[in-house]
Amino acid sequence: MSLLEGIKLPASTLAISAGACVAGGIVGGLIMKRTAKTTDQLPEKWIKVGEIKKLNVYPVKSMSGVSVNEAVVARLGLQGPNNPLLRDRVFAIVNAKGVCVTQKQCPKFAKVEAKVDGDQLHLTYLLDPSINIAVDIPTSAEDAKKEKDVTVMGEKLKAVDCGDKVAAWLTKLSELPDIRLMYHLSEEPQRSPVKRNSRFHTYREEHTGTFQDETSYMLMTDESLAALNAELETPVSHANFRPSIIVGGIPEPFSEDFWGFIRIGGEGGPVMKASLPCQRCVMTTIDPETATFRTDGEPLKTLYKLKRKVGDPKVSKLVGKSAIMGAHFGGFQGVGSVIQVGQPVYAALL
User: Fold this and answer.
1) In the chain, N or C: fewer CB atoms in 10 Å?
2) For 144-160, b where at least 16 C-beta lie within 10 A, e where not — what string?
3) Where are the domains of the chain?
4) pLDDT at 245 over 90
């Protein structure tokens, strides 16, 4: 039997009491109820579902990121604990109309390493490291006066142009005309909910980030990736999906589809609220090692075949037959807390 056919996730009406979980020795393998009446109240009952295996920060949207052992849970996404200028997806490449350009237009970006060192952004083309550039991060009050309109996922926000030198470097590398590097200087959200997200009763305006497609955090699990890879001739990695938080040690793949809230660490740890499932696009078919599109359409092709519920019946209806991998979250409590690789992750019982 195909693994995809064999996965039988619990129905969205399944309810598990905390007492039953403790008495039976059951942990995160049992997936909890997420009702249509999603609450914004802090949950009282939690189940340990795994632990943090990896934390990723992607300074530039659509470029390679950096793995960190610890990070600050900031309002707009993960942030470096020792350098506040290391922030998730605060740089974006745009065309002459100010619209974001991604790997879909230039797969080469998959092999551009983006690192923040002090007050500079360093870009290196990993297939030829001699092709590199350092960019001063615009952070002054004068820089703020130079903000321009940028469009990401149909939403307009303000960003600062990083200059002609890096624009010329990116234009030469990508062979795309008139592209610029823009910086999200503000530490406050600028984006408003759009119709595609406002349809989800689980989504909140405060979940918006900087240049992320949907929300400030995206979570995946090792077990879900392994279940997908069991169906593929050529396995893929988390790099195909670019999550900021990777959780491991969950007994069942795709359990994350049913988590209404997660808490990282013990009592008092930061809490994140589930916002919406991550609906995948053709960018997942770019091989992160070669920076080229795969000719077989994978892993997207197989993800479309994976028919499963995503926890809440209303959410399942909205995503329909989309290719789902991972879940979007937004900060709920404990913004400013530091999280670390190895910390336990708990999910709420709703």
Assistant:
1) N
2) eeebeebebeeeebebb
3) 3-348
4) yes
